[in-house]
Amino acid sequence: MLKKRFDYGLMLIERLKELPDNYIDVRGIARENKIPSAYLEKIAQELKKAGWIESRRGNGGGYRIKEAYLKISVSELINFFERPYEICPIGRIVKFNAYDQKYKY
Q1: Which terminus in the chain has less CB density within 10 A, N or C?
Q2: Looking at domain 4-104, which CATH architecture does it have?
């Protein structure tokens, strides 16, 4: 079962893909969808750390999707949001850190 975190992340990515050249305020997206803005902001920060979106502060600021990720697949999002643990080839469970792209045992 997919978590709300994935649902909100997918919704955010899809919204950013609608206007790829514009910076969009996460609070407005949260308000439109009746979800907690602080939680959506946290998800946006995770996506930013992973390099999928970028941000700008100030008037006209917000988040926008990076051009390289306009064709991101749902399976990539599922892996990002739902699969923090993987099994390595020798059978040990490892945690994949998407931010610095290293496996930790």
Answers
A1: N
A2: Orthogonal Bundle (1.10)
